[in-house]
């Protein structure tokens, strides 16, 4: 598992038909906890998304909102990319 300080939040558009997706990588959680956190983040952003291969994806550009939500839950997350 990655260290707790390696959580990254970024926005991706590649391979998604030009649509933006906010990606959360590096959370030190098991699959069930990751799925629960993914649901919380999707609800906080009011949009859909998925959890696969240890990565949470939320549809749309919600980097700031997700960073705030993770901070509130006690996770140390940093913005990655542009």
From TrEMBL:
CDD domains: YciH_like. GO terms for molecular function: mRNA binding; translation initiation factor activity. It comes from the Bacteria. Residues 8-74 form the SUI1 domain. Keywords: Protein biosynthesis, Translation regulation. PROSITE patterns: SUI1. InterPro entries: DENR/SUI1_TIF (IPR050318), SUI1 (IPR001950), SUI1_arc_bac (IPR005872), SUI1_dom_sf (IPR036877). One of its GO terms (biological process) is translation reinitiation. Belongs to the SUI1 family. This is SUI1 domain-containing protein. It comes from Achromobacter pulmonis. The lineage of its organism: Bacteria, Pseudomonadati, Pseudomonadota, Betaproteobacteria, Burkholderiales.
